[in-house]
Structures are given as C-alpha cells and as structure tokens.
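[recover] target loaded
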C-alpha cells in the first residue's frame, strides 16, 4: 500500500505533466511566432537597404562645358534641364562659372520624375536646386573649413622651378614667390646652385582635405649673388625686414605675371 507521501508526490508529478502537456504547445507557438516576426522584420530591413543602394544614381564632373548638356546626359529632358538651370541662376550668376567648378546630379532610378538634386560647388559655397513636392527649390550651403599655417624651405639645384616643385609647391605658388622678389632679384641671371628659399603661408581646407585658398604670409630668398632678401605680408602689401615697401618703381628682371616663361626663366646663371 502506497504511503500518503508517495501518493502526494505522484499527484504533483501528474499535475506537472498535465501542465506541460497544456502549456508546451502554447510556448512552441509563441516561440515560432516571435521567430517568424523577427526574421520578417530583418528581411524588410535588408530589402530596404538593398533598395536604397540602387535607388539613387549620381553624375558628377567639372563644368568644362554647358551645364544643360550634363543634365541631359543624366537623363533629364531638355525642357526640364532649362528649368533647373534657370532656377539655379536665381542663387548663382551662371556667368561666374569656371571649368574648375564642380557639379553633382542625383537621380532616382524608379521615379517618373527622376531628378532629385543638382549641387554646384564654387569657391566656398555649394549652390543647389532640389525637387520638393513637384516644385524646384534653390539655395546656398556654405562649405565649412578650417585654417592652418604651413612652412617649407629648400635649396636650389639646377633650377628654381624644379627645386621648389620638389618640396611640394604648386606652379601658381612658385609664380607668386618669384613675383614677390622680382623687384630686387633677377631670377634670369642671379640664380645659383646652393641658393636657399623659404615660404610661410596660410591655407583653408575642408574636412575632406581639399585646399580652398592659400595666402603667402612671409618668404625669403638667400642667394649667393644678392644675399638674403625678405618679403613679409602686412595687410595687402609686402615689406622687407626693415619695413620698406618691397616693390620698387622698376623690375630688376622682366617676369611674366602669368608665368609664360616659367621653365626657361628660372634656370641658374
């Protein structure tokens, strides 16, 4: 005969098994429902991300020709391209555009009216035309940039141009440098191997590292023929180390401002 304790234990086991039989299917249904919902949600996110990757198409380049042609090549009709350019002209004088200026066209692939936005970057601003509820809107976005100061120096070997270019200076900077000293130094005949130069300037740069503007603050040329000569910026003019205006009435060497003879005029004497 079973003891009361044994009977009670069996009752608990039977009750537990009964509850398991009732609630286990319910738990299984809930688990599979949640699992299905989670996978369905993740699938939607993945599909949405894939759609975003291929939804927009971008066309970019330099304004070496009329902007209308670039818009038409992106798939915009001639009539719509004219409207976009006219709208842009309300915030940007199109006559000021130069070949170095940049454009970016954004198109929607699966949209009857595919044009979304045009951005033209000029100097320190971005000018845009965008599609908004079927209407074209235009505006200006300023480019944020920081400023830094830089310094470079070097020695003349074979030619001033090659030596300055070897330390990373651009041709436009080399022209500016020689123009600073063209009133006191004849770079056509007084340049010698071993002459020294230095340049100190300020430049603005964007978060992407693009240089926006460069301003010479000071420079010197230390030549075997003429000795060391300084040019120090004050406001919009340059002065020597004694505070005298660096530009005299007559040029010591006739140098083209635009650097037409840039390769021949910097050879050593």
């Amino acid at each position: 005969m079973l003891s009361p304790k044994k009977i009670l234990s069996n009752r608990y086991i039977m009750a537990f098994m009964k509850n398991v039989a009732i609630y286990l299917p319910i738990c299984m249904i809930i688990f599979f429902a949640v699992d299905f919902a989670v996978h369905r949600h993740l699938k939607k996110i993945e599909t949405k991300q894939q759609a975003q990757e291929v939804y927009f198409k971008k066309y970019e380049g330099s304004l070496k020709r009329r902007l209308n042609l670039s818009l038409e090549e992106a798939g915009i009709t001639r009539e719509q391209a004219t409207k976009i350019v006219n709208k842009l002209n309300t915030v940007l004088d199109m006559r000021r555009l130069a070949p170095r200026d940049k454009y970016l066209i954004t198109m929607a692939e699966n949209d009857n009216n595919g044009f979304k936005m045009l951005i033209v970057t000029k100097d320190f601003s971005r000018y845009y035309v965008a599609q908004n509820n079927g209407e074209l809107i235009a505006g200006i976005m300023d480019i944020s940039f920081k400023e830094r100061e830089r310094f470079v120096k070097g020695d003349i070997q074979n030619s001033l141009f090659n030596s300055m270019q070897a330390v990373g200076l651009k041709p436009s900077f080399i022209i500016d440098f020689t123009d600073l000293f063209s009133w006191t130094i004849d770079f056509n005949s007084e340049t010698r191997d071993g002459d020294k130069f230095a340049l100190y300037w300020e430049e603005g740069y964007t978060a992407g590292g693009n240089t926006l503007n460069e301003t010479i603050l000071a420079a010197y040329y230390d030549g075997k023929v003429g000795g060391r000569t300084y040019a120090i910026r004050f406001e919009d003019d340059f002065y020597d180390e004694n505070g005298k205006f660096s530009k005299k009435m007559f040029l010591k060497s006739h140098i083209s401002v635009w650097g037409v003879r840039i390769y021949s005029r910097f050879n050593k004497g």
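[recover] notes: Strands lie at 56-62, 102-108, 115-122, 125-132, 135-142, 146-155, 196-205, 211-223, 227-234, 237-239.
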